[in-house]
Write a structure and sequence with these properties.
heterodimer, A: 481 residues, alpha/beta, Alkaline Phosphatase, subunit A, eight-stranded mixed beta sheet, B: 931 residues, alpha+beta, Jelly Rolls, five-stranded antiparallel beta sheet, 29 helices
Chain lengths: 481, 931
């Protein structure tokens, strides 16, 4: 048949296509396919863990999404020339680059102090006193660029590879390819702002499975109250009765199976109930960060303002990947201007606030993962949907959107520590050297998970879609080995 | 990075794997090849040469094979193929199972207990056929099939992207689709209306509602200056792609960046096709969606109105002359006049407006409209004992919005009213008059009539928003005015509240009636003088004019006549206005619905874009279609824009080409339509990719059958109900769904495990909406009200079709069962089995509430015996009686449930145990499956 793909992936594509083709049930298709052709892969669960195409070091991903677009020239991309040219016009600037086309001001130096850190001597602004101690663990992509200067399309681009609605996001692709290593937990989990600042623009479409089956959609943990639907017994039902219900279901199912021995969906349905029954116990346990020792909680800052909320989310993320969850995404900041990293008016106030919320928890996450030996197999990503302009947004001391340059860093999961890839121009306006497109970034991410981005495809509406569309090159310099 | 906007397989096609689903088709050529597929021929750079692809060919008129014993032509095709493989069909299912199958497929609801009872008692084919007719005639049929179509139409009621603004007027499209299915609208009209309803049937509100199809797609709510063009091309792409995928089963979007890799669609043809929609925009229209109701209400009114008018006429004819004679015999006493206009007054405007006396005693102000004006009226009247003053501000067509004020919006503001008086002939200084509490016909919020007699120049009386109507205010006078010779009055009206807010047409009246009506009868001083003269003239010397004056005066003051006239006036006022609904349409030449867009809403010209990039514009293009589906040049379907027409006729041309089976794409359109319907009956299409009939799509398992059905479909005038009847009447449709029931099961399972040849009826899982609707229906809680705006309330009990489809707030329960996200056209949904679904069945309060509803129903049966409760539960939820074993298991469960709740009152314990039991039945695979 097809030599280029291992059989496990081959059968997944096939069975999914057949489900899409209306033949019926994933469980049924999997059973038939696996019994006939494969034999070994766990049968019933479309989220069953599967080997990747090649050996990737990353087993799971924690993506810290700095929603709103952090400014590269105020965080990780040091530009002394920008300070020298402070107040000068940026020549040849197209006023349509940013969002507020009528508010174009002159170049503005970074208002933050910078210093070099670690053995690699990486320049980091004063925004990150904790993270700056980890620069030797990070692989920096300084030359990222994207296609839209507007939040929602840029978020879709970063999450799905297309600046439009309706396409599968990275987390869905990853779980489609690899399944989940947890039998009792969702494979792909998303956390959003718990401080009433809303969801990222585009809402749930940012963790949608698009045309992939809905099972690969991100599970959004409700930021307040019960995190997952239907985990608690409904009024009027007690645990013993529920167990008896499951037993009767199995008994009646068994009788029906005598009536129709070939009904494979029945077995899959019964199995799904047993799995759900276990999830009722497993999910609350996994989300219970309060069960962590005092020292760990202090490390993250789960009880210290202003980082307590993000600290709890980072700690939860660690607990989840530890239990086999494949993909976790945490959004810093919400939907409205200045309630995310979208510092149009005052870059000092805005970025200082969000850095103070996130710096210590993320640093703690890296330390904690490392201590547990999990960093090697957990890819940690920090970045936003675009960068910000080196010029001031007239009327304030903030910066407008910039699709031409932004910095993303990765750590762990098979990345090469302490490297810097690519560069922007001397004022940090545009990526000029070793440019990294969003497709390149996605190709690299998939590579670290063990996939050839050109081969992880899904047939929909007559086309073989992939996360990276028709382009994308793995950024080799940040891959270890 | 220009290629990134185009979603094509590109290099990944080299690794493309031929789907196994086509294996069975290859088996048609070589029966031995059933488990493996040959790789496709090496891909070429473009698919332009692939014009010989089966789907582009005319329909093959293959007659059904001669198969003795075949019940229908459909059976003949299927059986002949089974026979060729050495297979045979499965036996017929039981009437109960067939009824449940038909009810779920046709209406998305389980059969009613009564219908079930009927087929159990009369298992004849005729009884089943009757039941099917009942299902097809049920409004629930349209609701079920509309939901299927809305998948293909990527229907939603919000914009998507950053704000996901609601489209509160988008639901009429959904109601149109329900209506189209329920009325069995001919399919070609169904197509034409959705593409160009505003052009082909502009007078029909349903056709205008149908245009919601094109406008249902996502659209950014915030568009920066350098994205305006790109997003407009995205919108054109959405309309063209959805149209093409939904109706023709072709994706044209690939050709946005370059010639299609596999299908014969050139990039230039793509741009010519999307130019069809260049000037097409979302807009709003007010439509009469209830013409019959509106007509009925107007007719009801007209009948009542005619009766009122007839009563007046009869009174005037039969009663009034007698009453006039009696009045004359009594010496024609002058009855109390409510209001006497000051029509012999001198009126001036201090601000310089031109004041002109009108025939009705009013005065119009024209010419100069000063910032702040004052009107002064001086008059001598024979009346004495005046008890009230009335100021009328009258509507007039010469004023803005009909007035009655001179302000830009038709308003006025009377800041102060002053009245001075002295007895006629007196030389004393006139004295100011104090008013009692005034009343008015209408008072603007914050500007009441009382403010016209306070001493505050900035407060006053105004009437926004009741423009274009007559208004009046009445100012009672505590002490009666005047002397025996009459009264001299000076009235001053001040307009100091707001700039240019004086009254445009004014009439001032007084009355001696101590309790006058604001809108009581009005006479002029001249009328009074005339009737006085006529009255005192001896009857023999009265002129005709004097008789008329007397009759008019009498009539006007006859309370009976006034009652009749008031009834006619009230009836006229009560004439119902037709109720209209604001509907989102997709059309041309109306104001587009606008977003936060830093630029134009659309562009007249469509350009060829190199590599899909609006920055790489080529020549402008003119409308064209897909050459592979054209036997004639596009001019065959195009017609010129009509002189003065609002729309371009381009969409009409597209629809005409698409629905032309002879020369256009109609043959492919018919194939795609019948395949959709087939796939929704059998859970799998003859072509297993309903949205893709191109070279990447699956090949048909039964190509001759598909073409025969498409031909029949066109010959039947595109009747979907006829197609349902045909399919359901076939032996193939009525087969058992258990593979084990087939006499050659082992061999069949080996050859065709996926049942593509239909050797048994393929079980398939219900869709999300049908699951939720079945839960509500089986537990007796379904609210069957149809149509109108939807809701986001998860607890609502109408059918799931009536959830508002808000893209950022899709129903969690429906999403759990694979409902689409309404962004792209969907041809068939996945049918997953997942743990979160099971969690819903275990713990969802909504589901448990349905179980409680069900328990209430079952408790009635349980009062007779628990067995009856178990049987009823089985029938309501699974559409059949339990087997003995199932009954025993269930009874044991109920007994244990009662026992574990010994401490509760028996009635409560029973209710809970029955709810527990219902929850188990709902969780069974069988409940979720069309068997």
């Amino acid at each position: 048949m097809t030599p280029s793909l291992p059989p496990s992936l081959w059968s997944r594509r096939d069975l999914l296509r057949r489900c899409g083709g209306g033949a019926g049930l994933i469980g049924l298709a999997t059973l038939l396919r696996d019994e006939r052709l494969l034999g070994s892969t766990p049968a019933l669960n479309p989220l069953a863990a599967r080997p990747p195409q090649h050996v990737g070091k990353a087993r799971s991903v924690i993506w810290l999404f700095m929603n709103g677009g952090p400014s590269q020239v105020d965080t990780w991309d040091y530009k002394p020339e920008l300070a020298r040219r402070d107040g000068q016009e940026l020549e040849g600037f197209d006023k349509n680059t940013g969002f507020f086309t009528g508010n174009v001001g002159p170049l503005m130096k970074s208002p933050f102090q910078w210093a070099q850190h670690g053995q690699s001597g990486a320049w980091v602004s004063e925004l990150f006193p904790h993270l700056s101690r980890h620069v030797d663990r990070m692989a920096f992509l300084h030359s990222c660029y994207t296609e839209s200067n507007n939040h929602s399309p840029a978020l879709f681009m970063m999450n799905t590879g297309v600046p439009r609605m309706g396409f599968p996001c990275v987390g869905s692709w990853a779980t489609y390819g690899l399944g989940s290593e947890s039998r009792d937990l969702p494979a792909f989990v998303v956390m959003s702002d718990p401080l009433d600042r809303g969801l990222p623009k585009g809402h749930a479409l940012n963790w949608s499975s698009g045309f992939l089956p809905g099972v690969y959609q991100g599970t959004h943990l409700r930021p307040k109250g019960r995190a997952i639907d239907n985990l608690d017994l409904p009024p009027g039902l007690d645990p013993a009765t529920q167990r008896r219900q499951l037993d009767l279901m199995a008994r009646l199912g068994g009788r029906h199976r005598e009536f129709d021995p070939a009904d494979q969906a029945l077995a899959a349905r019964l199995e799904s109930f047993e799995l759900a029954y276990r999830m009722q116990m497993a999910a609350p346990e996994a989300l219970d960060w309060q069960g962590e020792p005092e020292s760990i909680r202090r490390l993250y800052g789960t009880d210290d303002k202003p980082c307590d909320q993000f600290a709890r989310q980072c700690l939860t993320a660690r607990r989840l990947v530890e239990r086999g969850v494949r993909f976790v995404q945490i959004y810093s900041g919400g939907m409205d201007n200045e309630r995310s990293w979208d510092g149009h008016e005052n870059i000092v106030r805005n970025h200082s606030g969000f850095a103070a919320e996130t710096d210590r928890p993320i640093a703690a996450l890296l330390t904690d993962l490392e201590q547990r030996g999990l960093l090697d197999e957990t890819l940690v990503i920090w970045g936003g949907e675009f960068g910000r302009l080196p010029i001031v947004q007239k009327g304030g001391t903030g910066r407008d959107h910039n699709p031409h340059a932004f910095t993303v860093w990765m750590a762990g999961g098979g990345t090469k520590p302490g490297v810097h890839h690519g560069a922007t121009d001397e004022v940090g306006f545009k990526a000029v050297q070793d440019r990294v497109s969003v497709h390149d970034f996605h190709a690299t991410l998939l590579h670290l998970l063990g996939f050839d981005h050109e081969k992880l495809t899904f047939r929909y509406s007559g086309r073989d879609f992939r996360l990276t569309d028709v382009s994308g090159d793995v950024v080799r310099s940040v891959v270890d080995g | 990075m220009v290629f990134t906007r185009c979603l094509v397989h590109g290099s990944s096609i080299a690794q493309m794997i031929r789907p196994i689903a086509t294996a069975i088709t290859l088996a048609a050529l070589s029966p031995s090849v059933l488990t493996g597929a040959e790789p496709p021929s090496p891909p070429s750079r473009s698919g332009l040469h692939a014009t010989n692809h089966w789907a582009f060919q005319p329909l093959h008129a293959t007659p059904p094979p001669s198969m003795p014993g075949a019940r229908t032509p459909v059976d003949a095709f299927i059986l002949s193929r089974l026979q060729a493989e050495g297979l045979s069909p499965s036996p017929q299912s039981t009437p109960e199972i067939l009824l449940r199958r038909a009810a779920l497929i046709l209406t998305g609801l389980p059969p009613s207990p009564q219908a079930l009872q009927a087929v159990v008692e009369d298992p004849s084919p005729a009884a089943f056929q009757n039941a099917v007719e009942g299902l097809l005639a049920s409004p629930a049929y349209g609701e079920r099939w509309a939901r299927h179509w809305l998948d293909a139409a990527r229907f939603a009621e919000s914009s998507g992207f950053e704000h996901d603004y609601d489209r509160p007027n988008a639901w009429p499209y959904r109601d149109y689709v329900v209506h189209a299915f329920n009325t069995d609208q001919p399919y070609l009209d169904f197509v034409r209306w959705q593409i160009a309803g505003d052009e082909v049937a502009p007078e029909d509100p349903w056709a205008l509602m149908a245009t919601g199809f094109l406008g249902s797609g996502v659209f950014p709510t915030q568009i920066t200056a350098n994205e305006v063009e790109r997003f407009r091309y995205d919108a054109l792409d959405d309309m063209a792609n959805t149209t093409s995928a939904a109706f023709l089963g072709l994706s044209v979007g690939c050709a946005r960046c370059h010639d299609h890799k596999t299908d014969p669609i050139a990039s230039k043809d793509y741009y010519r096709l999307i130019s069809t929609f260049a000037t097409t925009v979302r807009s709003h229209m007010d439509l009469d969606l209830e013409p019959e109701e509106n007509q009925r209400r107007e007719q009801d009114w007209a009948a009542g109105h005619a009766r009122t008018e007839a009563a007046l006429a009869a009174f005037e004819r039969e009663v009034l002359p007698r009453r006039f004679s009696e009045w004359m015999s009594a010496g024609a006493p002058i009855m109390a006049t409510d209001w006497l206009t000051l029509d012999n007054a001198h009126v001036e405007s201090t601000g310089g407006a031109t004041m002109t006396l009108q025939a009705d005693g009013s005065v119009t102000a024209t010419g100069k409209n000063p910032e702040f004006d004052r009107y002064r009226i001086g008059v001598r009247t024979p009346l004495h004992g005046i008890r009230a003053l009335r100021v009328e501000a009258l509507a007039d067509p010469s004023l803005t919005r009909g007035g009655p004020g001179r302000a830009d919006n038709g308003n006025f503001a009377l800041s102060d009213l002053r009245l001075l008086q002295r007895p006629a002939g007196s030389s004393n200084e006139p004295t100011p008059v104090r008013f009692g509490t005034p009343t008015a016909t209408f008072e603007q919020k914050g500007l009441p009539v009382a403010a016209a007699i306070d001493s505050d120049a900035k407060s006053g009386w105004a009437i926004d928003p009741e423009f274009g109507k007559d208004h009046a205010a009445m100012f009672p006078i505590e002490s009666s005015l005047g002397g025996p010779d009459g009264t001299e009055l000076t009235v001053e009206l001040r307009f100091d509240t707001n700039h240019r807010h004086s009254i445009g047409r004014l009439r001032v009246s007084v009355t001696t009636n101590a309790s006058p009506q604001l809108r009581g009868p009005t006479a002029s001083a001249r009328d009074l003088a005339a009737v006085e003269a006529a009255r005192t003239t001896p009857s023999s010397r009265r002129t005709e004019a004097q008789w008329t004056a007397l009759r008019t005066w009498h009539r006007k003051h006859d309370p009976e006549w006034r009652r009749h006239v008031a009834a006619v006036e009230a009836s006229t006022q009560a004439k119902p206005k037709p109720r209209v609904t604001t509907v989102m349409v997709t059309t041309e030449g109306l104001t587009p619905l606008r977003m936060h867009t830093q630029g134009a809403d659309f562009f007249e010209q469509t350009h060829f874009l190199r590599r899909g990039d609006p920055n790489l514009k080529g020549d402008t293009v003119s409308q064209g279609f897909l050459p592979v589906l054209m036997k004639r040049p596009e001019t065959h379907w195009q017609r010129p824009r009509l002189e003065g027409a609002r729309t371009s006729n381009r969409r009409r041309a597209l629809a005409d080409w698409m629905t032309d089976p002879e020369n256009g794409a109609g043959h492919l359109l018919a194939r795609v339509a019948v395949n959709r319907i087939w796939s929704l009956h059998f859970g799998q299409g003859i072509v297993s990719t309903p949205n893709d009939f191109g070279l990447q799509g699956a090949l048909p398992t039964h190509p001759e059958l598909l073409d025969w059905l498409a031909g029949e479909f066109l010959r039947s005038g595109g009747s979907m109900k006829a197609l349902h009847r045909l399919l359901i009447s076939s032996a193939i449709w009525q087969q058992d769904s258990r593979p084990g029931s087939n006499p050659a099961a082992t061999r069949a399972m080996g050859l065709d495990p996926e049942d593509r040849l239909l050797w048994h009826f393929p079980k398939h899982r219900l869709e999300a909406e049908a699951i939720r609707d079945a839960l509500l229906s089986a537990s007796g809680g379904l609210d069957a009200r149809m149509g109108g705006p939807g809701t986001l309330d998860e607890q609502q009990r109408r059918r799931s079709l009536y959830f508002m489809v808000k893209r950022s707030q899709l129903s969690p329960m429906l999403q759990l069962f694979d409902a689409p996200d309404a962004v792209l056209s969907v041809g068939n949904r996945p049918a997953t089995i997942t743990a979160p679904q099971a969690l819903l069945f275990l713990n969802s309060p909504f589901l448990r509430a349905r179980c409680d509803d069900l328990a209430d129903l079952l408790a009635v049966e349980a009062s007779t015996s628990l067995e009856r409760a178990v049987d009823t539960g089985y029938r309501r939820i699974l559409g059949r009686a339990p087997s003995d074993g199932e009954r025993q298991d269930s009874l044991e469960f109920l007994r244990l449930g009662l026992e574990s709740r010994r401490d509760l009152p028996r009635e409560t314990a029973l209710q809970k145990a029955l709810a527990d039991f219902g929850q188990v039945l709902f969780g069974l695979s069988e409940f979720l499956t069309i068997q």
